Structure prediction request, 237 residues.
Amino acid sequence: MIWCSYKLHPLVGAVIDASYTTSFVPSSPEVSSPTFDPETGRQFEVGVKADVAKQLSATFAAFDLRKQNVLTEDPDNPLLSVQTGELASRGIELNLDGEILPGWNITAGYTYLDAFVSEDNTIPVGNDLANVPDNQFTLWTTYELQQGNLEGLGFGLGFLYLSDRSGDLDNTYTLPGYFRTDAALFYERNNWRTQLNIENLFNIDYFSSSPFSNSGSRLSVDPGAPFTISGTIAVEF
Prediction:
């Protein structure tokens, strides 16, 4: 890995980063091919982080990732695997994180990702990778009361948006995009905290993914969780 960083003038409050990374992962043998080649890869990335307010920072990153010999579903037998020539993922990320006002925090992010088959002798070059949306947006914001009898009581609201995604590496079907809303209610006092989480507040129907992260599957898809409530209680000693 090669990494470098440059800090601009302190009054600007920004840092520029650049990195180059390589990877090597041995592949697990299968009955169909006990001698799969190792998965290799390399990634270029450049980014900027800046303080947009005293307690609020923003980051921007652009990247290009290439992986060779990735195991994917065998198009002739979904129960077995084959190796692709090369898969490419390139895009940008924008993130905002911090405190807007006392008690009001936010974490937001947007990703544009172009993920496709860049080299192969079987799978058409240019096919989209499975389960990878071109656009993804997330937002989570909370507010906690800072004084009064209800000090420590807080509320949270979150949004998740994913655009359409290919369901398999052959691009034979599409998983539709969705917009999901989550929420939370919490109370914190001294050394304990209790929280109620609500996932899929409006109980929308959606597909979260198809099995196998890179290649997807023609056999099944995974539905998203329905309206779900969960709770936690934590005590620090």
Observations:
- Residues 131-213+221-236 form one domain.
- The chain has two domains: 1-27+37-129, 131-213+221-236.
- The radius of gyration is 22 Å.
